[in-house]
Amino acid sequence: MIGILYFSSTGNSLYIAKKLKENLGGKIFYLPKYSGNGSEFEKIILVTPIYSFGMPKHVYDFLPKLDKSKELIVVQNYGGMVAGADYLMREYCTKNNLNLKSIYVVQMPENFTLSFSVPKFYLKKVLKKADSKILAVVDAIKNEKYNLPKKRKTKEKTYLKNMSNWYKIGKEFKTNENCVKCGKCIGLCPVGNISIVDEKIVFGDKCVACLGCYHRCPNKAIVYKNKKKKNRYINPNINENEIGQDI
Ligand SMILES: Cc1cc2nc3c(=O)[nH]c(=O)nc-3n(C[C@H](O)[C@H](O)[C@H](O)COP(=O)(O)O)c2cc1C
């Protein structure tokens, strides 16, 4: 069986994972809940967003643990700029002696939107294009048309520096008067960084900047640096409750 491992906070990576499963078979696992090392699968497809020209912390922490004998295919997705993130992924897999076969990159709607809103017409345009790109990835995997990015200037230092500052984002989150303390943010945070203390939602110092709480709060009650009226984003083609599930 193919193991499709994914990390996703707003559903883009899950959407890609589901398309891959639909066309290639296999089973989908949410990385933060997955405790194995991939050895039970015939091959592994990792679907991950690009974060800070690198990868989410869960992906960075998982790859060194992955079974080195298993064929690994990576599908990265990004909102606006890959820079060297694909080559950085290649280098990191090589450094960890992984059996990396291919890396594909797909543009999806941007979700790092704390300071701006992406216009709706642009989101639609990106989503439409993504479908044909994902099908091209399916075709490439089926026909073993593998692809590894050529050497590029990577920004590993910048990436690691950014990662070490992600916790500060959580420190800038606050809830506003729309918060009904439903606890949804507490349940979806992949690192358990949110709690209720004295009947108030409190953000700790373990934030990994996925922005899942910010985008998926049903009342848009989580605000960043008191900025108002920014659109939230959830991939419109998936059932939001499936984000974080194994499928
Ligand atoms: C912390 C963070 C950093 C990001 N960094 C980048 C980046 O360097 N380049 C880029 O094009 N998109 C970046 N993005 C956007 C996401 O890669 C993109 O929207 C992705 O499709 C989100 O996937 P998801 O919905 O599965 O979480 C970033 C998003 C977050 C939350």
CATH topology of the largest domain: the name is Rossmann fold
The assigned CATH architecture of the largest domain is 3-Layer(aba) Sandwich
**Major sheet strand order:** 2-1-3-4-5
Secondary-structure element order, N to C: EHEEHEHEHHHEHEEHE
Structural class: alpha/beta
Compute the average pLDDT: 96
Radius of gyration from the CA trace? 18 Å
Q: Roughly what fraction of the amino acids lie in strands?
A: 15-25%
Overall body shape: globular
How does this model look, in words?
The protein is built from 8 helices and 9 strands. With 247 residues, it is of the alpha/beta class. It has 2 domains: 156 residues, Flavodoxin domain (Rossmann fold), CATH 3.40.50; 59 residues, Alpha-Beta Plaits (2-Layer Sandwich). β3, α2 and β4 form a beta-alpha-beta unit. The chain is globular and about 55 Å long. Bound molecules: flavin mononucleotide (FMN). Flavin mononucleotide binds next to α1 and β4. The site of flavin mononucleotide has 25 residues, from α1 and β4.
Short description:
With 247 residues, this protein is of the alpha/beta class. The chain has 8 helices and 9 strands.
Notable characteristics:
247 residues; alpha/beta; Rossmann fold; Alpha-Beta Plaits; 2 domains; five-stranded parallel beta sheet; two-stranded antiparallel ribbon; globular; binds flavin mononucleotide
SSE blueprint:
Elements: E1 2-6, H1 12-24, E2 27-30, E3 43-49, H2 57-62, E4 71-78, H3 85-95, E5 99-107, H4 120-142, H5 156-165, H6 167-171, E6 173-175, H7 184-188, E7 194-197, E8 200-203, H8 212-216, E9 222-224
Parallel strand pairs: 1-2, 1-3, 3-4, 4-5
Antiparallel strand pairs: 6-9, 7-8
Helix pairs in contact: 1-4
The structure holds flavin mononucleotide.
